[in-house]
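Run log // design_07
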């Protein structure tokens, strides 16, 4: 691999942070989820200090559009500086871009922590590695660039499913296959994508397409996945920098099988709805305990359910 000066890095590329108040089920063994998230974001902050460049974030900063004040405050402290981002569907109420001003994402914009990119007003970043950034949030299809700038790297930041033969899924829509974007990405030097949690890099005509993949491992099928950050160089090439995830804790394999067999996902939304019932929740808790005591519920499932209830008292 070619050795480059650290001064040649123009931006750090990432997506799909899915910052959340509680760990996902597969990571419920984590002792302190906020500490875990901050440890990974610290690596991103360190990279930024080393390379003195902005961070381009291709959507789904939060796992929920209406994140708690606690999680918003965490993001204000733990995210790197100079973050340029587009919102993903998880950042938007009912996935509607028109409601962006209601979101936790927008709170970061108002606070000056995040600069939101759009397709109508490209952002130019001058300096030793000039960039022109074009944002395409969730629900906005990329648009070709008719007059590229000769002295700047033209970068599209997109939150939209894109897939290749090795990074797709059963019955993935053909209009989201990599080759289907050829016309829409014409004119860009680099296109940075979020939404598909499987990372890949591919050339499409004259455009280098970088799908970031998720920054945190959140599901059982990601145990073998290595989160990474893209280092965008001033010559338009990208180097992959893997993050250290050696301290990640997952639920034991046998327990994960029980959880999967039960079709169990994140219970927090369900519990939030229960809490909205007020005093009726007490009766529900008692009934649930009795049910779990009398039914043949796998121990892993039982523990996750009860932990979710306790965290939401």
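design_07 sequence
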């Amino acid at each position: 691999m070619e050795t480059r000066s650290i001064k040649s890095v123009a931006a750090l590329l990432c997506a799909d942070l899915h910052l959340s108040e509680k760990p996902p089920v597969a990571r419920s063994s984590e002792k302190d989820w906020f500490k875990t998230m901050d440890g990974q974001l610290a690596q991103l902050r360190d990279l930024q200090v080393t390379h003195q460049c902005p961070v381009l974030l291709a959507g789904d900063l939060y796992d929920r559009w209406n994140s708690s004040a606690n999680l918003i405050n965490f993001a204000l402290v733990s995210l790197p500086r100079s973050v340029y981002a587009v919102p993903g569907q998880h950042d938007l109420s009912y996935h509607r871009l028109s409601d962006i001003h209601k979101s936790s994402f927008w709170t970061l914009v108002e606070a000056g922590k995040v600069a939101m990119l759009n397709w109508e007003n490209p952002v130019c970043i001058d300096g030793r590695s000039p960039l022109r950034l074009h944002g395409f949030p969730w629900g906005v299809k990329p648009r070709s660039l008719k007059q590229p700038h000769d002295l700047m790297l033209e970068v599209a930041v997109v939150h939209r499913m894109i897939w290749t033969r090795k990074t797709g899924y059963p019955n993935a829509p053909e209009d989201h296959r990599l080759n289907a974007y050829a016309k829409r990405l014409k004119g860009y030097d680099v296109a940075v994508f979020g939404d598909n949690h499987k990372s890949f890099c591919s050339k499409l005509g004259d455009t280098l397409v970088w799908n970031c993949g998720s920054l945190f491992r959140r599901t059982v099928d990601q145990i073998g996945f290595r989160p990474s950050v893209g280092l965008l160089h001033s010559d338009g090439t990208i180097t992959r920098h893997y993050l250290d995830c050696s301290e990640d804790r997952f639920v034991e394999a046998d327990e994960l099988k029980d959880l999967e067999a039960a079709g169990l996902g994140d219970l927090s939304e369900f519990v939030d709805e229960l809490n909205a019932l007020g005093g009726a929740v007490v009766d529900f808790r008692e009934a649930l305990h009795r049910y779990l005591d009398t039914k043949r519920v796998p121990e892993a499932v039982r523990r996750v359910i009860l932990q979710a209830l306790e965290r939401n008292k």
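The chain has two domains: 6-242, 253-311.
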